[in-house]
Description:
Blueprint: H1 2-32, E1 40-49, E2 58-68, E3 74-75, E4 78-83, E5 90-92, E6 95-97, E7 110-112, E8 121-126, E9 131-132, E10 137-147, E11 153-163, E12 166-171, E13 176-180, H2 184-190
Parallel strand pairs: 6-7
Antiparallel strand pairs: 1-2, 2-10, 3-9, 4-8, 4-11, 5-10, 7-8, 11-12, 11-13
Amino acid sequence: MHRVTDVRRKIADWQEMNASYLKEMKKLITEIKGPKDFQVISYFTYSLNIFHEQERENFCLGSYHIQNLGGKPLTNPYICIKVSSDSPFDFSGKYIYKESKQKVRLTNAWERINDPMDKQEFWLKPNDKLTLEPSETLSFSNFQVKWRPNSSYTGSILGFTYGDEINEGINALNQISINGTINKEDEEDEL
């Protein structure tokens, strides 16, 4: 019985020593982990399917990403995706409205927080993500932009990121710029 007690005491001492070492290692890693300042970037990734033919449907499939590269969190993140007003683009994505009667909870859902009749600006916030921690990425995925050109066209899609720490917002590192030329010969052939 004496030996069992000694073994249990030694195991408890060993566990306490390991816990102490782990705590010290976590502290050291945190101190050297990286930047402690606030640094958030945002950017688009996308692919295009373009025909450059009159009345043929074209589309862009894209995602907007917010990445926290700094050492401090971004709280209450939200975004604005802006479609140029003179473009033929029709924007759609996976988002819900606050007034929506939808009872099903969508994972990674975003909520549109501006007027649904506005076809140029889409203000969106994530439903279940109140804080973007350091080294995390938040994405508004798989939005679509469709258009059927009647004539040559040009347009852009801009992105802006906001949060409690960036009330004035930051621009995305890139934008989506699309233009196309419909050949006059093609237009005349159809007449």
